[in-house]
Amino acid sequence: MFKPFRILQSAIVAVAGLGLVTLAAADNLVEGQHYEKLPEPIETRAGEGQVEVTEVFWYGCPHCYNLQSSVTDWYETLGEDVEVVHMPATMGGEWNTHAAMFYAAEELGVREEAHADIFHAIHEEGQRLTDPASIARFLSQYDVSEEEARQALDAFAVKAQVNKAHARMRAMRLMGVPALVVDGRYLVTPSSAGSLENMPQIADALIERVRQERED
C-alpha cells in the first residue's frame, strides 16, 4: 500500500498540481516542490551516456497499479539515451514475496509478458499471489512449468536480486511507493508531483535537466 507518500487532500493536491500539465522545461522545476533530491546519489546501472529512470513499485499497491497506464505510455516516448529499470520494493512480507515473483519471472525470461498481467490479476481478479504454489501456477501460463517457476522462486540468483533491490531501496531512503528515481539523484513521488499522472512529466523534465548538466 502507498505509504507514506499518500496523495494529499484534494485541495492541497489541486494547488500542488497547478501548471504541471504543461510543465516541460527543466528550468521550471523546484526542488522540494516538484521533486526531492536524494541525500546521497546512488550508483546507477545504465550504460555510458544513458540516463537511468528507476520505477520503484509493489505489485500489491493500488497506486502503483494506477500509475501503470501513465508510465507505460511515457516509456514509449523516451529517447534512446534513457534506460528504464523496474525495481520491486522490499519491505518484508508480501512485498518481498512479490519482489521474488518479479525476479523469478525475469529469470524465466517472461517478465515483460507477465508484468502487467500480475498487476491485473491482483487488482482486478482478486488474486493475492503471495505463496509459491499460486505464483508458480500463475507463471505457468507463460510456457514454463510450475516446477520451473518454483525452482526460479527458490533460486540463489533470485534471492540475490531481492537483496540487491532491498539495499538499493535503503540507499534511496525510500519509505513508500510508487516512486520514480532519475539518474540516481532525483526522486519523484505522487506527493511531489501533485498527482500520479504528473509523475512522468516531472521525471521527463528531470531527464532533460540531466542532459543539460552533462552538456555543461
Structure overview:
This protein has nine helices and five strands; from the N terminus they run αββαβαααααββαα. The protein has helices spanning 10-17, 62-75, 94-107, 111-123, 132-139, 146-153, 156-172, 190-193, 199-215; strands spanning 36-37, 51-57, 82-88, 179-182, 186-188. It is elongated, with a radius of gyration of 18 Å. It has two domains: 28-89 and 174-216, Glutaredoxin (3-Layer(aba) Sandwich), CATH 3.40.30.10; 92-173, Glutaredoxin. The longest helix has 17 residues, at 156-172. It is an alpha+beta fold and 216 residues long. It starts with 9 loop residues before the first helix and ends with a helix. The protein has a five-stranded mixed β-sheet with strand order 1-5-4-2-3, sandwiched between helices.
Q: What is the gist of this entry?
A:
The chain is built from nine helices and five strands; from the N terminus they run αββαβαααααββαα. The protein has helices spanning 10-17, 62-75, 94-107, 111-123, 132-139, 146-153, 156-172, 190-193, 199-215; strands at residues 36-37, 51-57, 82-88, 179-182, 186-188. Helix 2 (62-75) links the parallel strand 2 (51-57) and strand 3.
Which overall shape is indicated by the principal axes computed on the Cα atoms?
A: elongated
CATH topology of the largest domain: Glutaredoxin
CATH architecture of the largest domain: 3-Layer(aba) Sandwich
Low-confidence stretches: 1-22
Series of H and E elements: HEEHEHHHHHEEHH
Q: Report the radius of gyration as a whole number of Å.
A: 18 Å
Oligomer: single chain
Order of strands, widest sheet: 1-5-4-2-3
